[in-house]
Amino acid sequence: MNPLRQLFGGRGSNAGQYGMIIALIAIVIIFEFWTHGLTLNPTNVINVFQQYSYILILALGMVMVIIAGHIDLSVGSVAPFVGIIVAQAMSQWHWAWWQAIILGLVIGALVGAWQGFWVAFVRVPAFIVTLAGQLIFRGANQWIGNSTSVGVPESYQTIGNGFIPDFGPNTNFSNGTLLLGIITIAALIWTEARGRAKRRRMGAELVPMWVSVVRTGILIAVTLLGMYLFGAGAVGTSIPVVAIIAGILTILYGFLTRNTIFGRQVYAVGGNANAAALSGVNIRKVNFFVMANMSLLAAVAGMVYVGYAGASGPADGTGWELDAIAAVFVGGAAVSGGIGTVAGSIVGALVMALLQNGLQLIGAESNLQQIIRGLVLLLAVAFDVYSKTQGRPSLIGNIMRGLGVGRSRPAEGAAPEAPAADQPKSIDDQSKVSLP
Amino acid sequence: MRSITKEFPGVKALSDVSMTVKAGEIHAICGENGAGKSTLMKVLSGVYPYGTYTGDIVYQGEVVQFSNIKQSEEAGIVIIHQELALIPELSITENLFLGSEIGKHGVIDWTEAQIRARELLARVGLDEDPDTQIKNLGVGKQQLVEIAKALHKNVKLLILDEPTAALNETDSQHLLDLIVGLKARGVTSIMISHKLNEIEQVADDITIIRDGHTIETLDVHTGVDEDRIIRGMVGRSLESRFPDRTPHIGEVFFEVRNWTVQHPLDSSRLVCKNESFVVRRGEIVGFAGLMGAGRTELAMSLFGRSYGTWLDGQIFKDGREIKITNVRQAIAAGLGYVSEDRKALGLNLLDTVKRSTVSADLGRISKGGVVDSLKEYDVAESYRKLLRTKVPTVEEGVSKLSGGNQQKVVLSKWMFTDPDLLILDEPTRGIDVGAKFEIYRIIQQLADQGKGVILISSELPELLGLSDRIYTIFEGAITDEFPVAEATPESLMRSMTSSKKDALI
């Protein structure tokens, strides 16, 4: 193992992401110079999170959908469908903000159950089910809202454009941010130490101490940078509430995909549905919950966006599904399913968000922005596909080699990437194994 | 065909094979699974182009060198593969002329095509509207369409690879009659078949292939019986490549009664016909049968009804009837199934050794749905040591392992579920000799722990070397049962190739 691989934790399944981390840093640096320091200005960073948090939230669900071998094209319609109902509930039925949020989550779950039913039990391909869902829920949004915007009260807008409250002595810095930052740093150190202890107990290969120190050091530096960016903005700003929501969800879904039985089953179904079925995995259940969960997260994204925008409009959410799908693929997931990580998708989502933000800051027209984003997605995936067909260790290996650090080591390439060619292509449980 | 030798990477599939087929005869080719029959026919029909094999093909007095199927078809050699090559969504007419369309300048003359299609269908005795879609025809009729297609290509030498394997008896008889009818019109046929009664019925000559060599050519008209053919097919001594073991066999604990299962797509076919058998504790029970006899179908339908449509039959374990309708219940009831197709059905090739090992019983290393990664590592590591899987760490991806080591991972996966009955379907397919020996040892150890083992294998020496008792299966029915001491390759082969009136069960 070369040091960089160790540093970025190249343990098989999350190989796809550290190439993207480099890409993310490159994008930040390029735009930082291009915009003369505007990109990393605290106000801008806060704005990026508030404006694009929906990509982060959607990517969490989309990565599971894609790992399971499906796709969801409906999220850009489900989100505003829930958004308009939530807005109506507050503005016309005068529900409290928290009642409206509960309603929104329930509706998201119901929409998810609807789509999950068609995918898992009727076995209509998810592509078709969610294409229909895109039309159905877009129409429903405009029908409910009469194709007009419906405003939401101030109290609700906090979840979209609010900040964590400030308290304590005036330090010219957000105390809440400081506190959260310190907790995060402590958690990072604790996690690394616990990971080392665990691997030592397992008797597994242990990375050298310096790798642990440097790795934790980098993460702490990133946290400190984040603290500065969030804490040093205009008076009254600190960490946006949406960033907290996205952060908690990221930790939650990262744990779900990595550490739980359900997470394993999602990978198993996407990797080889027949083998999963013969190992006792209930494929219908997995498909149902993966699709249902996506709509639930779309509901969260929709509600957050309504809070940010202050109103729910008829054209909200247009193109969101593409942002989310692009984020997941840029983050290293495989089109054929079975491969992908939450962490990678978050990096991919940040790439897409910062690219869009950067292009806006330099004043690129929206048509040009679209062209560039499209090309970035195409090239990122094409490069990955090309690397795999060459039997090379994928994007990362090439970037490493380009930087002059990695040696050519096809045999030691990212474990999950190599066999993509001889992996059976079954998405559903339809072929050799018949299920009762 | 003279001195044909064909090598695949690492394996010599055919070595120095010669055979002579006379014009206007029906020539049967017999041999065990993997003897090289299909490979030989693929060489003849240009599937393996000239240059990838050595030796000469002499056809109508000339040495021919086909570089693709198109050339061999132009010469009048047509092969009909075991897996039919028809497109289900297209009509009979469209399929008949696929690749040799009737028309001019790329425009198809459908009227002419229809007329020709009717003629061809009449010649093969298929009374169907040429506009019928292939998917609406049974396998027997599809087979006839394939032959009609061959006739359209002016076939002189027709090669049929196990043409009746998927057919019921009426359809088989019809097909055999047709082949005899074609012979009268001057079409020579080469037929690969496992069904010796059919061969006796229609063939003029029989060539026997074993382990990639031609053994002999027999003339049916001089009086050849099934025993004679079988002796040629199996005639080799058992090598001592099995670990020693003294079996400790307990009482019957697993019993299947009247197991009857329908083919998933073709409701007129039964893949398991009223099968009954028992397994004792500590016993290795072999299931012998030729490919397509219904061994895998039996195993998979027992394992949570994973194949076909269950019609009838009961499973008893420890004297009580158990109801198993899905894989999870099967695992919970103490069954394990190691599939014959490691890559398609046994493993997720994207996964690591560690994750694969625990994948069939995650509940045992989890609490509240959360996988305990420490336990997971310990389990994977202990099986790696126990089975001596050659892999640097259990974090390695399974796709990088050799076949033998992949199979060990699959075995660990099922051993981890702690089954009482482990069904092993072709556990040593595609595995080198060294790893085979180790897997044999593992199988014997499992039996010695008091588990029941069902061993399905196409290799008779393997069955004879490992099993304590052997059942034979033919066309979805159990035809015979042998204690291993009384079984010989010849007696097994006889029961594997014919239904027996006085079947024991």
Write the layout of secondary structure elements.
The complex is a heterodimer of chains A (436) and B (505).
Chain A: H1 3-7, H2 16-34, H3 42-67, H4 75-91, H5 97-121, H6 126-144, E1 150-151, H7 154-161, H8 175-202, H9 209-231, H10 241-259, H11 261-271, H12 273-278, H13 283-309, E2 311-312, H14 320-330, H15 342-361, H16 366-389, H17 394-402
Antiparallel strand pairs in A: 1-2
Chain B: E1 2-8, E2 11-17, E3 26-30, H1 37-44, E4 53-59, E5 62-64, H2 69-74, E6 77-80, H3 92-96, E7 103-104, E8 107-108, H4 110-124, H5 139-152, E9 157-161, H6 169-184, E10 188-192, H7 196-202, E11 205-210, E12 213-219, H8 226-234, E13 252-262, E14 270-280, E15 284-288, H9 295-302, E16 309-317, E17 320-322, H10 327-332, E18 335-338, H11 342-346, H12 353-357, E19 366-367, E20 370-371, H13 373-387, H14 403-416, E21 421-425, H15 433-448, E22 452-457, H16 460-466, E23 469-474, E24 477-483, H17 489-496
Short description:
Chain A is mostly helical and 436 residues long.
Task: Provide structural commentary.
The complex is a heterodimer of chains A (436) and B (505). With 436 residues, chain A is mostly helical. Chain A has helices at residues 3-7, 16-34, 42-67, 75-91, 97-121, 126-144, 154-161, 175-202, 209-231, 241-259, 261-271, 273-278, 283-309, 320-330, 342-361, 366-389, 394-402; strands spanning 150-151, 311-312. Chain A has two domains: 3-162 and 240-422, no CATH class; 165-233, no CATH class. Helices cover 68% and strands 1% of the residues of chain A. Chain A has a two-stranded antiparallel sheet. The radius of gyration of chain A is 22 Å and the shape is globular. Chain B has 505 residues and is α/β, with parallel strands linked by helices. Chain B has three domains: 2-234, Rossmann fold (3-Layer(aba) Sandwich), CATH 3.40.50.300; 239-334 and 419-505, Rossmann fold (3-Layer(aba) Sandwich), CATH 3.40.50; 353-417, no CATH class. In chain B, strands 6-9-10-3-11-12 form a six-stranded mixed beta sheet, sandwiched between helices. In chain B, helix 4 (110-124) packs across helix 5 (139-152). At the A-B interface, helix 8, helix 11 and helix 12 of A face helix 10, helix 11, strand 20 and helix 13 of B.
